Amino acid sequence: MKAVVYTEYGSPDVLHLKDVEKPSPKDNEILVRVCATTVTPTDCAFRKADPFIIRFMNGLIRPKNRILGNMLAGEIEAVGKDVKLFKQGDPVFGTADTDFGAHAEYKCLSEEGIVAVKPINMTYEEAVCVPEALTALYFLRDLANIQSGQKVLINGASGSVGTYAVQLAKYFGAEVIGVCSTTNLELVKSLGADKVIDYTKEDFTKSNQTYDVIFDAVGKRSFSHCKGSLKQGGVYLFTVPTLAIVLQMLWTSKIGSKKAILGFAGLNQRKENLIFLKELVETGKIKSVIDRCYPLAQVAEAYKYVETGRKKGNVVINVGQGNG
Hints:
The chain folds into two domains: 159 residues, Alpha-Beta Complex (Quinone Oxidoreductase, Chain A, domain 1); 135 residues, Rossmann fold. The strands form three sheets. Strands 3, 4, 5, 6, 7, 14 and 15 form a seven-stranded mixed beta sheet that branches. The chain is of the alpha/beta class. 47% of the residues are buried. The chain is built from ten helices and 15 strands.
């Protein structure tokens, strides 16, 4: 099968389309013929081993998992003898677990993993983006305990996580304020934001407005900058760990009513959350935002585009054709 392989850390030029051995499903696994995958900032971080801590997870000198890609959608080509939840031909979507491997024509997944039958009202390209909403769901619902009527600010509201965060916060009944660039104002409004702040013209931390929750979906602001914009009892959520922010999290857990909370969504994903998101999709509560699609052979170009920081929503890789 074809797969995008990297054997050293570095720029997108370390990615090469190669022929590799097609995997075979174990007794409790499904073999998915991948129709679509995505390129995310996480993929970029693992490709270049930045931050350095990635090397402790994926190989100090060279990558241990040599095929990137954590989200996929496709058709089940074969099932192991013990599989009960799926059958051959099912259209599915989900995540590739901690070993990545979705930038390939085939991928084996445990039937108990973060995988479910694809939403009936989505293409493979649209469905493959939905697992990004797992991060937004985990931060807003599970960590912040978002409540109806709360005032929630989403920084990075036009990104892959941010676009889902806006929709989910609105679904949970919050008043939603999105922060993005000038070119994405209308997009964020269309997703349900009650107000959109253009960060090129206004710094939300310099106004007199305060919020119950500030979710920094892109890791561009710090708790110290945002603390003054939190209400008493407010929560600042951040997705990009740094030493400074970890120390702030530990400090605020002991004193004061304003809290900084770091979460690791990748370690807290559950199948039932993916099924919950599928139901929201099928009832029209959330949708995917796709910026660009690339063929598998041009995956390096997709990485370069993601790293410009200008993408809106998701960047999708078309791997193969499916019937769904």
